[in-house]
Amino acid sequence: MIETLESTQVSHETLRTIDAYWRAANYLSVGQIYLSDNPLLKRPLRIEDVKKMLLGHWGTTPGQNFIYAHLNRTIKQNDLNMIYVSGPGHGGPAVVANTYLEGSYSEIYPHISQDEAGMRKLFVQFSFPGGIPSHASPECPGSIHEGGELGYSLSHSFGAVFDNPDLIVACVVGDGEAETGPLATAWHSNKFLNPATDGAVLPILHLNGFKIANPTILARINHEELEQLMRGYGWTPIFVEGKDPMKMHAAMAEALDVAIGQIRSIQQNARETGDTSRPRWPMIVLRSPKGWTGPKFVDGVRNEGTFHSHQVPLSDPAKCPEHLKQIEQWLRSYRPEELLDENGRLRQEIADLAPTGDRRMGANPHANGGRLLRRLKMPDFRDYAVEISQRGCRGIGDTHVTGKFIRDIVRLNEEHKNFRIFGPDETISNGLEAVFDVTQRQWNAAIVEDDESLAPTGRVLEMLSEHQCEGWLEGYLLTGRHGLFNCYEAFVHIVDSMFNQHAKWLKVTSELPWRHKIASLNYLLASHVWRQDHNGFTHQDPGFLDVVVNKKAEIVRVYLPPDANCLLSVMDHCLRSQHYVNVVVAGKHPSPQWLTMGEAAEHCAKGIGIWDWAGNESSSDPDVVMACCGDVPTLETLAAVSILREHLPDLTIRVVNVVDLMRLQPKSEHPHGLSDSDFDALFTKNKHVIFAFHAYPWLVHRLTYRRTNHANIHVRGYKEEGTITTPFDMTVLNDLDRFHLVMDAIDRLPETGGRGQRLKALMQEKLVEHRRYINENGQDMPEIRDWEWSARS
Amino acid sequence: MIETLESTQVSHETLRTIDAYWRAANYLSVGQIYLSDNPLLKRPLRIEDVKKMLLGHWGTTPGQNFIYAHLNRTIKQNDLNMIYVSGPGHGGPAVVANTYLEGSYSEIYPHISQDEAGMRKLFVQFSFPGGIPSHASPECPGSIHEGGELGYSLSHSFGAVFDNPDLIVACVVGDGEAETGPLATAWHSNKFLNPATDGAVLPILHLNGFKIANPTILARINHEELEQLMRGYGWTPIFVEGKDPMKMHAAMAEALDVAIGQIRSIQQNARETGDTSRPRWPMIVLRSPKGWTGPKFVDGVRNEGTFHSHQVPLSDPAKCPEHLKQIEQWLRSYRPEELLDENGRLRQEIADLAPTGDRRMGANPHANGGRLLRRLKMPDFRDYAVEISQRGCRGIGDTHVTGKFIRDIVRLNEEHKNFRIFGPDETISNGLEAVFDVTQRQWNAAIVEDDESLAPTGRVLEMLSEHQCEGWLEGYLLTGRHGLFNCYEAFVHIVDSMFNQHAKWLKVTSELPWRHKIASLNYLLASHVWRQDHNGFTHQDPGFLDVVVNKKAEIVRVYLPPDANCLLSVMDHCLRSQHYVNVVVAGKHPSPQWLTMGEAAEHCAKGIGIWDWAGNESSSDPDVVMACCGDVPTLETLAAVSILREHLPDLTIRVVNVVDLMRLQPKSEHPHGLSDSDFDALFTKNKHVIFAFHAYPWLVHRLTYRRTNHANIHVRGYKEEGTITTPFDMTVLNDLDRFHLVMDAIDRLPETGGRGQRLKALMQEKLVEHRRYINENGQDMPEIRDWEWSARS
Asked: What parts of the sequence cross the membrane (chains A, B)?
């Protein structure tokens, strides 16, 4: 069954110890699901010993206990640096049982002690209000992967081993999870791994055959197809299949020895010879029954080996005495008296199977990455400043400027190998081409003549899968490193749900004192909604921000720097920060530059502010506030202000620019929120505010609805109008252009009288002229293309 | 190169015609990218003939033109019913060129006539403001798949062929797209296809080797691995590899004959013998150079066969005369004078290669699915009504009731086979088990003893991939059928981006008179945020609604029925509707029933209304409005009202329930929006409104910020607090529970005085009691579990 010549022998005695360890973990798992008392079954089981609400999942648990016990043996024997990723959902009972058995659980939670009293608490807390969930949740030591949402285990595992040459991640992939898209493409991660400078992932595809109520695809194709699939993905599969425990122990022990042997041999070869060409890494296919060792039948229906074992197999002991009897038989089938001493502690000869100290998978520092976090070395972002010869001078594209800053971050941290850039083939397209001056795209598939910036090692990872980019980066961050995900704004929605889960992970871990803070997850969304000139409607969606701000205020930050110097300041801040999700939206096309570096740093530190030089207010309140957030809205707002000041010189205008979107929220809602008095000082208590916003306009209303002056805030933003057209026409289609903004202001300012109405008429003429011009010429009018900021009043 | 014994011969003459057709399409493609005039090159090319803004994508185009020409020959020869799905992004020039050549384009757009004048317009409109995008956009006849966002071509194709036994979808899969997760798992769709009752998908994996700036993975693994991968996915690959046009024509023609032969033989066998066991369907791997036939070098850098050909190879003819020269040479290399007559019409002997009438891929009715749409036969939803013995009587779980209604829709439409249910293994979990009384899960992988509800044909498709469910359903709807996607609320975020694209597709097609309306995309989100008792925090996310309401108001509808009778009424409405996206959020757990069928139908028709029987107002305005939206918020609101009415009998309370969320928006913003006077009549102009909401609370503010009484609307909803706990405790953690709602009301009603304060103190005690009780018992207090509605005042 095992396809190898280099098999090793594991003694029968060791196999018996593994079996005992497995039984102990199974016992503790069933105990978690069922017992509120009588944890050692010192007396016959009574209904009072059983939890009133039976919640939890058994199906995947015995298989994961089996794997964990075998990994313990292998780690100890080979002194491996290994962590465990539990891909199948609902593996909670297994990882909790095992970290408890190895001692790492009680070290973190001393009240869950390794004795009868602690075991009782261990059982009671599981799936209990105020207790712990049934996944490999953040509360569980050794976990970097929750498993609540399926599909990301392999991506997280690869993220963990990049730049960790000694680390092996044992990644259990559920056969349900394997049907998801993200997992199906994650097998290709092996084309991005360097065997010399990265660690290894050992995938263990766990074919227990069923999901919630269905068989799984990979369990229902024949052996030949499954083997071809894994080989086609570039892996060497080792099959372990069956259900007889002792035969399976022998097969699994041998499979692991073969796999570890192959990993070591691949790594040794690459590291000694420098030959880093892509190896065929080993992986294990473990086919074992769902709900293995659980009840064979429940109420006359087959349970072990079917989807009926997915949750709680015997679900109604209160009403059905037969269930209670079966639960007791099931628990006693593990012969707990052989495994645990009378105080409930695992017998030493069994406990010795597991490694000790930080080699325990529940105590490995890589699984609590903040412990390993080293601050990034950062150049002074001010050194990359754009010279502002005059307000509004044309830059080279804001992200291109930041690209040089990031290039030097790459360079400065080359030694520690703890910074990476991820993107779906868009790092150049997003304007970060400068990084390729100092590094390459890491790529381990074939390289041919004429390829550019591809190499076996490099700081940039590009695969056309936003899921992979996100999953790799999350794994990289969770193991204590730093990184950046650059992505088209519209398509970052592809990872909405992954973002949700990571934000939830950060929220929960921030409340666990033993979890050290990790580096922030930084998104750079260049190629944004307003500049999809050649891509059109499908590439226009600024709604990721709406998804982000739904998450806990302590975790999420959103920045929309208006120019290159502001972007530098913001990126510097984000890359230094910890335990946030930072979303930065910035442009890549040549666009006006407004603030000197000093002004930008000050403006970004405040996150919001009045641009005195753009407005013309005196000491009293202005007549109108022109607010803007985002690079394109800032341009259109300043162009509108320029028109207003020229044509209505008596009007006093205040210009407010927003970089840190969270400043708009009340302080009670977000730590960055402005106090009401500060907000009122900026936006006035009663003047009209014409607000040009980068994203969907109602997001501003959602953030400001409690503010004094909210009824006077009028927001323009993207409203799902667009196609392939000119950059300026995109703003026209969404009423965000300078002409509309001027008209909006006049509509709110009846006191502008006849002059206002004449200016409005002029604006309408301009819009007609614009439409005619682009229809004839396919580009914007010269007065738009060549526009320069001036404040003539 | 072709792996088959049954090869056929295509005459050399035919191959030459195919080549001519291909050259014509290539000529028209390059023309679209470059030319504003001189479409037939009747004079030497001048810079004035070239567009000022050069936008578009060449890289994928010649390969797709190659495929389309070969498909034309095959369709005509075999009288195939075939449509074309363009998976690679930016195949716009190819599909536009080909539908123009075959005549379907000019039939829809008569001004783009098949002559020199029309050709000039065809060229000018491409990637031009007000023109057409560079994808296979909705504007292009024959398209059901835009391709702007990558990854869904195969899923759409399979959706199209379910229940269309005569249809073949030729699906071009880009090798960039093939890296995405959704595409990587979509290959497994063959495990769900019935060769007798469904049609066939012929995937053509187009390995042109490059993405935007990178090679692709599948082009850089060796032949053996690629073949293993495709075989592992269950396909039989046929390889066509090379770059010499005439050799490639011969190979491709033969490959298609083999593939079509295999498809027909598989279908014939299944249909004649009844053996529907899973066949190995054929697929084609076409390896050809990116930018094939384009310039070999540009500015000294290799272009054809590299990623440099991705967009516009010669990008600056205005400044670089050499570019202009090369453009002309490139265009003339296709020898247009051999292909087009002097009026610009394709010569008849070449045009004859293509099929005619509805066999043309641009005219096939399946690609304009509304043409084939047949109304669903619907039973009377009132027949499934829940008897309301008294207000608040406990139901069996709302979706379980609707399950029977849907079961009978399945039954009634069995004959026409135009209704399907899609879900990621959750149809039973979401409460729709009744459908398995009359149908099965369609499944074509192995079936073994003890399997339940699996069969080669069935109306339910379940794969653990939300992407697949969504993609299949979209393909099914786009080809003129009906369906339902049932999904856990939290995990529907996985398809946020697919929803975005489908909503955009619906918006654009609704503006094209020749595009017939299709059935709505219906989501049933059961297993919602408030009832994740055993799944916890990762399964709690009601934010899909925020994503949905960002899209065009004409397209999106959101319903939150409070009980089973309302759910029946809503589902009836949604399944009859066209060209919307309907999102329905409903519960599956036993919960109180409020409205008789008659009341429910009336309430849902209005979408919002006062529940007189719950409040106690007299003719004048009430003291407070207690509003609710969603089943759990409605329960907690009514429980709060019950407490308020008992303890503060002098208080007059109005209860408003919202089913149709869009009613909250102003009429100007959404067609369902209430007028301001109607809104004021419900919510008053100045009374406090305590609003209990299903999702994130700020969504209500976003919808109502323009309303008269907005400042008095106080919303409770999910605020990212939760874990494994009791159902009621979930509401407590988010301040949405009855006790908090009572306290909220009292806080806003100082006139309740000492009695109010005493009630508030009582509520605080209740919360303490609740916390203590669940900590001790792991379940809710009896007074919560056994609560029954009563209005004692």
From this structure: none
